[in-house]
Design brief:
seven-stranded antiparallel beta sheet; about 35% strand
Length: about 170
């Protein structure tokens, strides 16, 4: 069976099978020259198209940077970004509401540790779900992480949640 791929290496089946209640979020990783005003240009580009930035993480080096960014609408963000001239790629990431309790990060990490899922990086999401803060987590085994987090009763963030949060 042949698979068609879009300009960003995603299969057509993958692109069309995504639903807003899919338990993964999509982040854009945008390459930026490390010069004054370049990040502002990127953020202005999204905000002038009425896209709300729900997460932002900057990885900096001497001459370049990567902005990991999540938007309130993945589809609209992808459309706008593809017309922008910025170099980027996309990747799946898990959004999860921090559990209620005294040690929410330890609780979350313990759930993933039990399944031997490695956390590669994490950063905060600028949204609240049912009054709780949320974080984005990149892991080495996304399917196992989703399964174990759901089994342990953690509240996963969906793209629907990002659209609904104001």
């Amino acid at each position: 069976m042949a698979t068609d791929f879009d300009d960003h290496g995603s299969s057509t089946a993958e692109t069309t099978s995504r639903d807003l209640d899919w338990p993964c979020l999509r982040q854009f990783c945008v390459f930026l020259e490390n010069r004054i005003g370049r990040l502002r240009d990127l953020l202005r580009y999204f905000e002038k198209h009425d896209l709300r930035i729900v997460a932002l993480c900057i990885i900096d080096s001497h001459d370049s940077a990567v902005a990991r960014i999540m938007l309130s609408s993945y589809d609209r963000g992808r459309e706008i970004l593809s017309l922008s001239g910025f170099a980027y790629f996309e990747s799946d990431i898990i959004g999860v509401a921090l559990p209620v309790g005294h040690q929410p990060f330890v609780t979350l990490c313990s759930s993933l540790l039990q399944a031997e899922v490695n956390i590669q990086y994490t950063y905060p999401l600028m949204c609240r779900l049912e009054g709780r803060s949320a974080i984005a987590i990149s892991v080495d085994d996304i399917e196992m992480a989703i399964k174990v987090l759901a089994e342990h009763g953690h509240r996963l963030v969906t793209e629907d949640d990002l659209l609904a949060d104001d």
